Fold these 2 entries.
Entry 1:
Amino acid sequence: MIFPKYFNWNVELKTISLVNRQIMTVHTFFIALTLFLIGALCFTSALDLINTKLGHSITFGLGVFWSVRLFVQFFVYSPKLRKGKTFETIIHIIFSLLWLYFASVFLMIYFK
């Protein structure tokens, strides 16, 4: 896994209680699983998402989800986390554009 190694979780998470460490690990797994399943849904059921009432409801939910994620990127995470760090700044820009794209596509499908 990329995140645990990059963020040095073997060391960082040892300073918190076992329950918090396990919550972090389990939640990270389920976030990754959810994102994988959303991607699988888009690849396997694109026409249903575009052409059905249920699909439109799902795309609205996904549009809101990615819009909130984009908001969090700018207004919850501190700019200090990337200030003066080239790699972190590039990743911030790339993922911000990706979340903007996801939010725009899903909301355009819903509002078409």
Entry 2:
Amino acid sequence: MKSLTRFAVCMAALTIVLGAPSLAAEPKALAICAACHGKDGVGINADYANLGGQNAAYLVLQLQAFRSGERKNALMNGMAAGLSDADIDELAAWYAAQPWVVADNGNANLVEEGLNRAGYCHACHGMKGYPVAKNWPILAGQSALYLDNQLQAFKSGTRYHPLMVNVVKDLEPSAMTALAAYYTQLNGAD
């Protein structure tokens, strides 16, 4: 017991002398992303994705797709073009470690309609908006405008994923807006 007490006292003294362990350094490319997505991963407006707390594997895949041009977005393609694999890994880890913030900016009157239409979505994105696979996005609490825009992009073909093409092919714009309203109000803990 004496040894344990001495060890604890020594560790406390070292912490005082050397300082508490520091948090991981910010990624060197963080400023590029923070201009739109915030340093903490909260988009500066509802049209930008919230990245804080998002699955790191999903973020890596999306940044790689933007960099290669596989995922089309003029702004993001340009931003990601100069990122190395190490930059992408660091950014994904950084944003995944930030707390998830619920956007809560959808039309509350459409939530029930969105829930009624979310059956297909639950298979991949879970009942509470948290996906069954780490390389798929968390939808719970994401900005309603962003979600609505992404659904429309899948339907128009400007964004592609083989599973999403079939999910959105018969959705009307009003259904997409209702789904976005439903997912934006979820916090994953209900």
